[in-house]
Specification:
Chain B: Residues 11-247 form the ABC transporter domain. Chain B: This is ABC transporter ATP-binding protein. Chain B: Keywords: ATP-binding, Nucleotide-binding, Transport. The complex is a heterotrimer of chains A (294), B (277) and C (364). With 294 residues, chain A is mainly alpha-helical. Chain A has helices at residues 5-32, 39-56, 60-85, 94-115, 142-164, 166-176, 178-183, 188-213, 220-235, 240-260, 263-280, and strands at 132-135, 138-141. Chain A has a single domain (5-280), classed as ABC transporter involved in vitamin B12 uptake, BtuC. A two-stranded antiparallel sheet of chain A has the order 1-2. Chain B has a single domain, classed as P-loop containing nucleotide triphosphate hydrolases (Rossmann fold, 3-Layer(aba) Sandwich). In chain B, helix 3 (101-109) runs parallel beside helix 5 and helix 4 runs antiparallel to helix 5. Chain C has 16 helices and four strands. Chain C has one domain. Chain C is globular. Helices cover 73% and strands 2% of the residues of chain C. Classes of the chains: A mainly alpha (294), B alpha/beta (277), C mainly alpha (364). Chain A binds chain C through residues 29, 34-35, 86, 89-90, 92-96, 98-100, 102-107, 109-110, 113-114, 222, 226, 229-230, 233, 262-265, 267-268, 270-271, 274-275, 278-279, 282, 292-293, and chain C through 57, 59, 128, 131-132, 135-137, 139-141, 143-145, 147-149, 151-153, 155-156, 158-160, 225, 270, 274, 277, 281, 311, 314-315, 317-322, 325-326, 329, 354, 357, 364.
Chain lengths: 294, 277, 364
């Protein structure tokens, strides 16, 4: 039992971070049917925003709460820019979009490397996250608890937004059937842009959370993009429920494997598990079943 | 290994059910089709016509039974059903646009060849391909990329592909949609010719076309069989008249005609989602 | 487009072969010949990517994995050859008393090594491809899963310092199947083998593209469901192309080791895999020569600009992806056709790529 609690607690925090990173990805992927490989770099932008905000607001107690909305907007604007400048021309070429965004991610990484010190920048943790919470005799760092709370808030906000606002309904309608939504008078262009803004903004929020847990440097985004995608794939496209379960599953799984073996072996094991999982459920945990084959 | 059916077999569909997340698209449809007849499946949009074909060809999961001779088709993967001799076309002509007409047909003919022939280059034109080209009037288009064929020619190419594939059952989904009057006549005559030895089942909206070429007709409505028989019998059926001409029916039929069938299923899905939420 | 002029292409391969095998060795310095050999290794892998991605529509973003299988098989053999009967030097440094890891032992044999270079990628790609294609995993899913595999393998190699040399990789090879690698004549021989293998790979895909299989592969790429309705199992068609691509990547990797003299996880990870894609996209994914020429061009840029102006090089690669994919999706090799079309006048449409996409939409 003792061998189970630390990886479980650790893993759920890791899963929450993955969930934050995957949340926006699942939104933009469900919406556009394509992976934005620069999503990880939007996360990185969020982390660097947290650092920059800290340069303006000295007190780290205050700067992190301020950084969250700022990072959302900054990363969101980057996403909007990407959609308007490149992605909107490529909606009918999903695989090519993936490659173009690989190019964008390379450029953003290199830019970050040149603007900021190559070894990365320190983001001060706020004092109120210093403590620990004792769970079943194990000291759980408050930073991890904070990540879980943040993820919960983001998921709840996103779910409410999708469900109760007219914009959210339009997004869901477009996800389900773009052509039909258009026929029904929904401006899918506006929906696409807003979705991209929100999805990328969520990556920014994830970046702030990531800056509190790991290092803030130019390659941090690249670490998250693949696991985040695996989460989206395993959860099922456009399925919030599936994404949550998959994120926690992958997070806890990675953490347990890493605890029992080594970090790198854990990655390989996680990869094999996802392949095996896709054998059983190629459409992910939850699917919208229609007549057309996905 | 499954053996293709012999040419005398009939297609017998019994109590076919197809559901999409609770939405019943086809609810207990039975009909049969025999070699020598041009069988039509008609009905307003959303009636489940295409879904029936999807079920028979393995594209949609279904319960019930669809037998070709002694062979049960349901539950097999798509390509195995094809190998039993069941071929189909799609609402929107789907040919390989980047390949020439000959290449399209050559691929269709390929499943009868040994796999080693795949590694070789094609030399000459198979007699079966030449025959299909003549049958469909595409001989002059042999080297044309399929992508630049006219809409009607693409539909004929699809039928030619079924012929070289030597399909015993031809399931044609709206083969004359978007065709000119002359093209429709040519297609109708083509169907009558090829139906001599094969089972031809046509999903159609065009009532005029159906009247001219149908041997027997099955009318579907809301996933169920409404009426069955010869053209005259079906036309005389008061239930059919109500669906097509009835006071309430006329307006809805016209309105529904604008919405593709999938969209209707999608709508049902969305509504269902909302009611769950 | 797919209208092949087979004999013209064959002539092109002939010219290419003469340039690589006869002209290059006589005009290039040892340094540049060795560099060209390195580009040829990437080009061999790129020809495979052209087969899988250009013709087969499978975006293979993890070819580094198969490159690694060939490269590390070869590197282990050469390391053991250099070490003689003993344990390789880097292992001794790490732990003087530990024995050779069991999986190294068979690589003492030349035959086993050569066999492994061919069989390992075929088996690995076969299992992976079978699992994914049969379950109809495709598009972005497939691309990301292959890249995830490359990331996972590179991480695994990095962390197993004693078994694989970790981040420093394997290097300091003295012999190549008995030939002293320091000798310029032997180095030229290694180059010629590599260039010859590249020409051979081009010949293989040339025959594949003009065969019925080539047509079937394009058909599967453009309308997988339609192919299914003709009685084929598209999974098998794709599997053949994927395994072929993996085999070529492995061969490229195997020759990379004696030419460059070192193999590290950096050469097999996500970034390296993406760089291989860059060359193929640049040259023209679906054309015969495009992938190889594009890979040679990107390889040249990597070793010249990449070392003198690394920041700029990353931007160039990034921009290359954006510009080429956005404006020239068929790569540089489509330029001549574009010029011809432009001269013919704007009235004549080139083809109907949009129609192809629609077809995909209908049937999938």
């Amino acid at each position: 039992m003792d061998a189970l609690i630390p990886p479980l607690l650790n893993g759920s925090a890791q899963g929450a971070l993955l969930l934050l990173a995957a949340l926006g990805l699942s939104l933009t992927f469900g919406q556009m049917g394509v992976i934005n490989m620069a999503h990880g770099e939007f996360l990185m932008i969020g982390a660097f925003t947290a650092y920059l905000v800290q340069q303006v607001i000295d007190s780290s107690d205050l700067s992190i709460p301020v950084a969250l909305p700022v990072a959302f907007v900054v990363a969101g604007l980057f996403g909007l820019l990407l959609e308007v400048s490149i992605i909107q021309w490529m909606y009918r070429r999903p695989l090519d979009t993936l490659l173009v965004t690989v190019g964008v991610s390379l450029i953003l990484q290199q830019a970050a490397l040149q603007i900021f010190p190559s070894q990365g920048v320190p983001v001060e943790k706020p004092g109120w996250l210093d403590g620990q919470l004792t769970v079943l005799g194990y000291d759980w760092p408050l930073r991890q608890v904070f990540t879980i709370l943040l993820a919960t808030v983001c998921v709840a906000a996103l779910a409410a937004w999708l469900k109760y606002t007219s914009f959210g309904r339009r997004i869901r309608a477009t996800v389900h059937n773009r052509d039909l939504a258009e026929t029904a008078g929904i401006s899918t262009r506006t929906v696409d842009r807003l979705t991209f803004f929100v999805g990328s903004g969520l990556a920014g929020v994830a970046g702030v959370a990531a800056s509190l847990i790991g290092g803030t440097n130019s390659t941090m985004g690249a670490q998250y993009i693949i696991p985040a995608f695996l989460v989206v794939a395993a959860g099922g496209i456009g399925q919030l429920k599936g994404t949550i379960i998959a994120a926690l599953g992958v997070g806890v799984g990675l953490s347990c494997f890493a605890y029992w073996t080594t970090g790198s072996l854990a990655q390989v094991l996680a990869f094999i598990l996802v392949i095996v999982f896709l054998q059983v459920r190629p459409q992910g945990l939850f699917t919208v079943r229609t007549r057309s084959l996905v | 290994m499954t053996t293709p059916s012999s040419s005398g077999d009939s297609l017998v569909v019994t109590d076919l059910h197809v559901e999409f997340s609770g939405f019943v698209a086809v609810g207990g449809v039975s009909f049969d089709a025999h070699p020598g007849e041009v069988r039509f499946l008609i009905g307003p949009n959303g009636a489940g016509k295409t879904t029936c074909i999807d079920a028979i060809t393995g594209l949609s999961a279904a319960t019930g039974s669809a037998k070709l001779g002694e062979q049960e088709l349901l539950g097999r993967p798509v390509h195995k059903i094809v190998r039993l001799g069941v071929g189909r076309t799609f609402q929107t002509a789907s040919v390989f646009n980047e390949l020439s007409v000959l290449q399209n047909l050559d691929i269709a003919a390929g499943r009868h060849r040994r796999w080693t022939s795949l590694l070789r280059t094609r030399r000459g034109v198979d007699p079966s391909i030449m025959q299909a080209l003549e049958e469909t009037g595409l001989v002059d288009e042999l080297a044309t990329p399929a992508g630049i064929l006219s809409h009607g020619q693409k539909q004929w190419l699809e039928i030619a592909m079924l012929l070289v594939q030597d399909a015993q059952v031809l399931l044609l989904d709206e083969p004359v949609a978007g065709m000119s009057h002359d093209e429709r006549t040519a297609t109708g005559e083509l169907l009558q010719r090829i139906a001599a030895k094969r089972i031809v089942l046509v999903v159609e909206h065009d009532m005029d076309f159906m009247r001219r070429y149908a041997t027997r007709v099955t009318v579907l409505h809301q996933g169920k069989v409404l009426s069955q028989g010869t053209v005259a019998e079906v036309q005389a059926d008061p239930k059919v008249q109500e669906v097509y001409l009835g006071t309430a029916g006329a307006a809805t039929t016209a309105a529904m005609a604008a919405v593709p069938e999938e969209a209707a299923a999608e709508l049902a899905n969305l509504q269902e989602e909302d009611s769950h939420a | 487009m797919t209208k092949l002029k087979p004999h013209l292409s064959l002539g092109g391969i002939g010219v290419f072969a003469v340039l690589l095998l006869a002209v290059a060795p006589s005009v290039l310095t040892d340094h540049w010949l060795s560099n060209l050999g390195k580009y040829c290794c990437w080009a061999i892998a790129a020809v495979g990517i052209g087969l899988a991605w250009g013709r087969g529509g499978m975006l293979v973003m993890g070819q580094g994995v198969f490159f690694a299988l060939g490269a590390y098989s070869m590197a282990m053999h050469l390391t053991l050859e250099t070490a003689g009967d003993g344990v390789p030097g880097f292992m001794v440094l790490y732990d003087p008393l530990a024995p050779l890891p069991a999986f190294w032992e068979p690589f003492r044999s030349t035959a086993f090594t050569l066999l492994a270079i061919v069989v390992l990628p075929v088996v690995a790609a076969g299992i992976l491809g079978y699992a994914l294609f049969k379950r109809r995993v495709k598009g972005a899913y497939f691309a990301i899963l292959t890249q995830a595999l490359a990331v996972a393998l590179a991480t695994l190699v990095s962390s197993t310092i004693r078994e694989t040399g970790g981040d420093t990789g394997l290097s300091d090879f003295k012999y190549f199947f008995g030939y002293v690698l320091n000798d310029p004549a032997n180095r030229t021989m290694v180059y010629l083998i590599t260039a010859g293998l590249l020409v051979a790979c081009l010949l293989v895909v040339w025959q594949l593209y003009r065969s019925r299989f080539g047509e079937l592969l394009v058909a599967t790429r453009d309308a997988e469901e339609r192919v299914r309705f003709l009685g084929y199992d598209p999974a098998n068609v794709k599997l053949v192309a994927f395994v072929g691509a993996a085999l070529m990547a492995s061969i490229g990797g195997a020759m990379f080791v004696p030419i460059v003299g070192i193999i590290t996880p950096a050469e097999i990870g996500a970034a390296a895999s993406i760089l291989m894609i860059a060359g193929v996209a640049f040259g023209g994914r679906a054309s015969l020569f495009g992938p190889a020429l594009g890979a040679i061009a990107v390889g040249w840029g990597q070793s010249s600009l990449g070392s003198t102006w690394p920041e700029g090089w990353t931007y160039i690669i990034g921009l290359l992806f954006i510009v080429v994919i956005l404006f020239l999706p068929k790569g540089l090799s489509s330029l001549p056709a574009r010029f011809r079309a432009a001269r013919r006048g704007p009235g004549e449409p080139l083809a109907a790529p949009a129609a192809t996409r629609q077809l995909e939409g209908v049937t999938s």
